[in-house]
């Protein structure tokens, strides 16, 4: 998916680039597979802001994605669509027997008219979903389950892919996009191939308005606030923060502090950390 760059007719256009959307074949979503996405502007059920810098943005409807891939019948790809709720594109499938429609995350190379399936005997080609025990070592995979039958939870964003490194009778070792090597049960399902929309990371926003359209409000630096508003605030002129390291508005360390629970039960499943060299 190449991107379009504009001539600098305005300051916002100077560095802006947008996708060509040449892979998209259908503009409006399948009505039976969407529901209304209610906005809460970062507030919880009591009205308190629990996530800052949220609010506004364009209206969106949520596309119901089939992350479990339970149907073993072959299905035909009828359309590739844009999904405003995620970075990857989605593919509309129609079951060849029941004619039931569903959405999946579209892998790289999937085209309209392709027939894909989810079974233990499926071919090793992009879009097919198999248990990890039936996938050859070294294969590039995405949409990986952590718990058998729960549905894909890992490697779902645009351009992401993992690699199956090793396997025994019960567990498999998978290298994730971050570099982390993790143990996953061989009964978990995974989809062959790399997630599509690879050039998503090359898109440049260009202007503040596009961020507001996403529902993200401006973020103000703590160092330009008053001391009453932020620990970094105050001082004459452009002052240092006056602390050993940056902190959040509530005084918690903001950089370098490890927040993972030291007693996390999944520690034993991580073979190599993403930070290890």
In brief:
2% of the residues lie in helices and 24% in strands.
As a percent range, the share of helical residues equals under 10%
Query: Please, what is the CATH homologous superfamily?
Result: Nucleic acid-binding proteins
Kindly report the CATH topology: OB fold (Dihydrolipoamide Acetyltransferase, E2P)
Shape estimate: globular
Report how far apart the termini are: 32 Å
Order of neighbouring strands in the sheet with most strands: 9-16-10-13-14-15-17
Quickly give the structural class.
mainly beta
How many structurally independent domains?
1
Unreliably modeled segments: none
Annotated CATH architecture: Beta Barrel
Number of strand elements: 17
Order of helices and strands: EEEEEEEEEEEEEEEEHE
Give the amount of beta strand, in percent: 15-25%
CATH class category name: Mainly Beta
Primary descriptors:
277 residues, mainly beta, OB fold (Dihydrolipoamide Acetyltransferase, E2P), four-stranded antiparallel β-sheet, 17 strands, 24% strand
Written overview of the protein:
Helix content is 2%, strand content 24%. The protein is globular and about 70 Å long. It has one domain (3-201): OB fold (Dihydrolipoamide Acetyltransferase, E2P), CATH 2.40.50. The strands form 5 sheets. The chain has a 7-stranded antiparallel sheet, with no helix packed on it. The chain has a 4-stranded antiparallel sheet with strand order 7-6-5-8, with no helix packed on it. Strands 1-2 form a two-stranded antiparallel sheet. The chain is built from 1 helix and 17 strands. It has 277 residues and is mainly beta.
């Amino acid at each position: 998916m190449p991107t379009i760059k504009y001539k600098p007719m305005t300051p916002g256009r100077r560095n802006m680039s947008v996708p060509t959307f040449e892979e998209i074949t259908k503009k409006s979503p399948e009505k039976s597979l969407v529901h209304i996405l209610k906005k809460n502007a970062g507030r919880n059920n009591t009205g308190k802001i629990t996530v800052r810098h949220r609010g506004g943005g364009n209206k969106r409807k949520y596309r119901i994605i089939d992350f479990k891939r339970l149907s073993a019948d072959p299905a035909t790809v009828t359309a590739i669509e844009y999904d405003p709720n995620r970075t990857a594109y989605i593919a509309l499938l129609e079951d060849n027997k029941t004619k039931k429609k569903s959405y999946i995350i579209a892998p790289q190379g999937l085209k309209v008219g392709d027939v894909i399936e989810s079974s233990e005997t499926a071919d090793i080609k992009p879009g097919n979903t198999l248990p990890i025990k039936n996938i050859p070592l070294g294969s590039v995979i995405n949409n990986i389950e952590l718990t058998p039958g729960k549905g894909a939870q890992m490697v779902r964003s645009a351009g992401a892919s993992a690699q199956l490194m090793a396997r025994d009778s019960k567990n498999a070792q998978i290298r994730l996009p971050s570099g982390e090597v993790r143990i996953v049960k061989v009964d978990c399902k995974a989809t062959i191939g790399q997630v599509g929309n690879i050039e998503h990371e090359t898109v440049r926003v260009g202007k503040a308005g596009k961020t507001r359209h996403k529902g993200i409000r401006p973020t103000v630096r703590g160092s330009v606030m008053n001391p009453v508003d932020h620990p970094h605030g105050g001082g004459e002129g452009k002052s240092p923060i006056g602390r050993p390291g940056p902190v959040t508005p509530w005084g918690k360390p903001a950089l370098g502090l490890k927040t993972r629970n030291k007693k996390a039960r999944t520690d034993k499943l991580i073979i190599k950390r993403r930070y290890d060299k």
